[in-house]
Amino acid sequence: MRVIWVHGPDQSHYFCVSQITNVFRAVDGGEGVSQFLLMGHRRLRLTGVVEDDPLSVTVEHVKDKPYDGSQDVIKATVMEVVTTMKDLIRLNPLYKEHIQLFIQHMGEFNASKLADFGAALTTADEPSLQEVLEELDVTKRLYMTLTLLKKELELSKLQASIARGVEEKISGEQRRFFLMEQLKAIKKELGLETDDKTALTVKFRERLESRRQGCPAHVLQVIDDELNKLQGLESSSSEFNVTRNYLDWLTSLPWGQYSEENFDVGRAQEILDAEHYGLADVKERILEFIAVGKLRGSAQGKIICLAGPPGVGKTSIGRSIAHALNRQFYRFSVGGLGDVAEIKGHRRTYVGAMPGKMVQCLKATGTANPLVLIDEIDKLGRGHTGDPASALLELLDPEQNANFLDHYLDVPIDLSKVLFVCTANVVESIPGPLLDRMEVIRLVGYITDEKMHIARDYLERAAREGSGVKPEQVEVTDGALHTLIETYCREAGVRNLQKHIEKIYRKIALKLVRSDLLKNGKINNSNVLAESASGTESNGERIIEELLDSGEVATLKSTDSATTLSEDGESETSKVTKKNEESTPIEALYVDDSNLADYVGNPVFQSDRLYDQTPLGVVMGLAWTAMGGSTLYVETRVIEQNAGKGSLQMTGQLGDVMKESATIAHTVARAILREKQPDNSFFSDSRLHLHVPAGATPKDGPSAGCTMITSMLSLAIDKPVRRDVAMTGEVTLTGRVLPIGGVKEKTVAARRSGVKVVIFPSANQRDFDELPAHVKEGIEVHFVDNYSEIFDIAFCERQSQAGDNSPQAAEVVQSVDVSPMSVKHFYSF
Ligand code: ADP
C-alpha cells in the first residue's frame, strides 16, 4: 500500500489510498528513482499521526455529498466535460492514452469520477487541483473541472498554433536548405561552383596567406571585416559583388613583396649597351643613378624624366633601366588624360568602379617595387573634375606617395619603393610642380651616322628575326641604308626607320616564299605573271600573303631553297619572267640604292635644302619642333620701290613674338646698313615682303631675329649670303645677340642639311661644347655677341660663286621642303 500526502491550504492533509493492484505503471526514472502511475479510489482526511517511523496515521473517510446523476444540470455538465475532453484528444493525442487507461480501470462510470479524472487530466496548478479534490459537492466539482478543462483546451489550441508556426518556419528553412544543397550539387556538376561564398572566402584567405607578413595591420583588419561582411550578404545582391571585387583587389596586391634589386653597375652598363646604341651621356646618367642607389641601398627618391622627340628610345631606355635594376616594368600613358579617376581610382559605390593605374600596376607586376614608366607627361589633359597634374604629383612626390590613397582601395598603399620614369617630348609643357621633382635627361635625336649603326646593329636584326628571314638570304647594302635614312627617314627618332626596315624585310619574305612556290610549281606561273603585269594584285600574291599570315612560310622555306636575285630594281614581272627563262638558282636577295624604291616606295624627302645656293634675300635659319631640330629659310623680296615709302609685310603663319622679331629686325637692319653703307637708302625706299616657307606650319619664337636681319641686309647690299651658312639667335634693338634653346637639336638639323657654317649666340657656347664630338664633327661654328659679327661672317668673300648675283639665276633644287612630320608641328625659333 502506498500513501500520497496531499497538503491542503489550511495544512489539513488529504491522501489517497491505493491498493497495490492499482499501480498502473512503474517506470524507472534512472539514478535509483522510480515513477508510479496510481489510480485513486476514495477520499480520506488525516486526523492524526500515530507513529513516524514507520508512518502510522489515523484517518477518516470522506464521502461525496449525495447527488442525483439524472439531473439535467449534471447531465449537461457531464456531456460538456466529455465533449471538451474529446476536443482535447483531437488537439493532443497524448491525452488519448490517459483516457483509455481511465476507461479500462474506472469501473462503474459516474459524474464524481469523471470530475476527478477530468481535473487530473489537466496541467492546472496545485491549488486549483486541491480545490477540486476538496470539493465534495459533485455538481460544483464537475463545474470546476469543466473550467479547468476549457482552460486546458485553450492552452492546447495555443500550443498547437505555436507548434504549427514553428513547424512552418522550420519546414520553409528546410526546403530552402534542400534546394540550396541541390543547387550546389548542380553547380558542382556543371563546374560553376566558384562563386560559392565559402569557396570565395577560402580563396581570398589562401591568397592572402603568403603576403600576410608584409600586409599592414590596418589592411588585414579591413580584409577581415570585408570577409565577415561577405558571409552575411546575399550572393545575388549587388553589394555582394562590390565586396567580392573589392576583396579580390585587396588580396591580390603584392603586400610587402619586392623583387631583389641589382645595383651592379657593370651589368647595367652591359645591358644598356646591348639594347641601345650610343646615348653615352644618357647611359652615364643612368649609371650614376644606379651607383647612388647602390651606396644608399635603394634607387628611389628622384624621378627621371626622359625628354626628347618621338622614336629616340625613351620608352625602350626605360625598359632597359628596369631590366638593369631587375625590377618589373609597367608602362602607362597620361597623354590627353583628363580624368583624375584614371590615377586615383573611382569610389567603390559607382557601377563598374575600378582602382587607378597604380593599383592596377601593382597587381599586374606582382611586386611592390616595379619601375613605372609614365609616358607623355607633357601632354597631360585638364580634367573638369579635379586636376590630373596634382593627382600625378601626389603619386610621384616621394614625400606623399608612402601613403598613397586610391579612392577605390580606400586604404593607404606605400608607393615609396616604386621607381618612376617619365617621358616627354617638350619639357616646357610639363606642369611646373611636376618638373620640379624630376631629373630631366634629354635625348635629342640621332644624326645619320648614329642611325646607320642603330639600323645595322639593332633594327635590322630585330626586323630579320621578326620576319623569319635568314641572314644568308638577304643583304641590305650600306648605300641602301644610307639612302633610306637620308631620303625617307630624316626625323630625329628612329621609329620611322624601324618601320621602313620592317617593310623591306616583309617584302623580302614575300619574295622568298614566292620564288619557292614558283619553283615547286605550287602556283600557276602564267597566272601570276599575267595578273601582276596588269598591275592588279594577283591570286598568287594573295595566296602567298595568306600563307605568310598563316605561318606556313616556315614549312615552305628551307635553308637550301633557291631564291630570286633582284639586283637591278626591275619590276616584279620582269624579274620573275627572267628567273623562269633562265631558271638560275639564286642564293640571296640584295637591296641596294637602285632597287630600294621597289621595297619602300618613292622617297618622301628630296633634300632638306630648298636652294642649292641661297639667292638674294634668302637665309637659312635653325628651328626646333617637338620632332627635333629643323632648318628653315627666311625669305625677303622687294615688292616695290618708292622714295620714302619703306615698309615691311610678313607671311608664313608667324606668331606674335615672331612678328615683333621681324619688326625689330627691320629696324636693326636699317641701323646696320646706315653704319655699313651710309648712302644706301634701300630701307626707306622699299616695300619689303618677308616670308618663312612651310606656310601651313605655325611658327613662333624670337630666335630667328638674326636670320631676318641678314635676309633683309642681303637685299639691301645686293649680295647673297655665304654658301652653306645657317644661323640662329635673338637680336635686341641695339643689335646684341641673345641666347637660344635647343642647341643640340639645331646642330643635328644643320648637319643633316649639309650646313658647313653655323652661327650661334656666344651665350650658347657652353651648350655647344657639351655636345658629343661626333655631333659637332665637320661644322664650323661661330659664336657671336653682336649682329655686326654675323654680318662679317655671312657676307664675307663668296666661295665658288661665279658672279651669279641674280636671284632668278639661283637654282631651285626642290620646290617645297615639307617633311611629312614637320607640317604637323609647331616650329619654335
Ligand atoms: P620613344 O619612346 O622615344 O618614342 P621608343 O623607345 O619607342 O621611342 O623607340 C622606338 C624604337 O627605336 C624602339 O624599337 C627602340 O628599340 C629603337 N631605338 C631607339 N633608340 C635606339 C638606340 N639608341 N639603339 C637601338 N635602338 C633604338
UniProtKB/TrEMBL annotation:
Pfam families given in the database record: AAA, Lon_C, Lon_lid, LON_substr_bdg
Polar residues compositional bias, start-end: 556-566
- Per UniProt, residues of the Lon N-terminal domain are 1-153
Q: What is its EC number?
A: 3.4.21.-
Which residues are noted in the entry as ATP-binding? G308, P309, P310, G311, V312, G313, K314, T315
Coiled coil ranges: none
> What is the similarity comment for this entry?
Belongs to the peptidase S16 family.
Specify the protein name.
Lon protease homolog
